[in-house]
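Notes from hallway chat w/ T.B., transcribed later so I don't forget. T.B. wanted the structure written out for a chain they're using in a teaching module, and asked if we could keep both sequence and structure tokens in one place. Agreed to drop them here.
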Amino acid sequence: MAVSLWFFTTEKASAFVVVRSLKTVFRYHLGTIAFGSFIVAVVEWIRYVMKYFEKQAEAQKNRVMVVLLKILQCCIWCFEKCIKFLNKNAYIQTALMGTNFCVSAKKAFFLILRNALRFGTVAVLGNGIRLIGFLCIMSGTGCIGYLLMNEMHPDVSPFFPLILMLICGYIVSNLFMNVFGLAVDTCLQCFLAVEEMGVGGEFVPSSLDAFVKDSAPKQDS
């Protein structure tokens, strides 16, 4: 929500949209968030039930049933990943258009189909940047922690404090890069909205403005 509000703001450098986006979410979109989370929870619950049945089949030494349940769990896991991906894009559509979850999920699905190459390219590049950021944050945390431990407590082994620092670095980097990935996906959908509707070009960042004009559908004269 904050990224979409920022994208469609002319004064981007001075825009402070976090508080406004929180108010909008809590006032209008809590039901959408709850419904999307409920769908993911149901799919995960079904997968855990299949895991329980697998344990029961193993206890009864029913190898055929174990294999079938493993295959079923694999299919459910793939379905869960698809649902989570569609959920994320449906939330972005809700932030952009203000529609309910079902309508947003439908729009997100067909938007991905129409722009599969762009979504694939952004996904590959985004995952690469996320991996680099993840490694940089963790390695930076470890290096700074090691230097601080040597300066403050040179007679103490830095092994266990470093482990704790790396765990904290892992958690922080995971949270930060997840937010970064969501912001990238939101900017992509904002860009596609401007391109497909042919309005709002003045809100596009200058680095994207020329590309939007060049890639806009040509009108027959």
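Follow-up for T.B.: The mean pLDDT is 84. Might be a good example for the class.
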